[in-house]
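Notes from the 1:1 (GR / supervisor)

We went over the backlog. Supervisor wanted to see one worked example end to end before approving the batch request, so GR pasted a single chain during the call. The sequence is below; no edits were made to it. Supervisor asked that the structure be written out right there so they could see what the output format looks like.
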Amino acid sequence: MSNAFAMIAIWLGAVALNTVLARRAGRLPSVLVPMIFGATILVLWEMACRRLAVPAVILPAPSQIWSAFAGNLPLLWGDFVQTILKGALSGWLIGAALAVVTAIAIDRSPFLQRGLLPIGNFVAALPIVGVAPILVMWFGFDWQSKAAVVVVMVFFPILVNMVAGLKATDALARDQIATWGASYAQALVKLRLPAALPFLFNGLKITTTLALIGAIVAEFFGSPTRGMGFRISTAVGQLDMALVWAEILVAALSGTLFYGIVALTEKRLTFWHPSQRQ
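Structure output shown during the call:
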């Protein structure tokens, strides 16, 4: 009972502290509030697991997950390189590049506007658990098949946003640059691509998490003896749930860092857009 009262007191104390900090302006309170909230959740999680003697198979305590994380760093690093750097990142870059080039082609061709986008919506609706084993059979068990799955997952969200961005330029600006005798390439580089950047980055940010999910899920259908999806499936079979949570921790940190890099790049390149103004 005393443990329950301690948990309630910790929660109420954290809520009160965060309420005070949230009312203050500045960078420090905006950093402290989520840190205090996250630390509170971890403390309560640890106390609940110890107090209720929750089996590690059901829910390991944060201390057990950290022990698995710290004790398997070389293994987790190898899985990170295989899944995130080779599978997810390469597939995301290839998919984004293909989507941008295709969007420019669609912008130039009414036929592609009417023909490709409906097909794109159809392909985007295909279930990844059905597409992944097919691509694994086509491209092999190594990272190339995972990159192919990621390309399929990220291509159409980026394409749709990029097409919308290319159409977002003001008609008066298009008429003005046309009166200056600018070619399509000049209008594209100086007017339409800059105007499309906010839309492009919306698609890029959305697909950062899709890329990680696609690469990890694809490994369930065939992979060499490394990779986050492979490790999770084998660790579940061995009831080593602390290692499973350690892999989840790596995936969460990687996804947060990935999203943060894209968001920071967006802030630097689209500083002129109203959405970036304080």
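Supervisor's comment: The CA atoms of residues 87 and 144 lie 7 Å apart.
Batch request approved.
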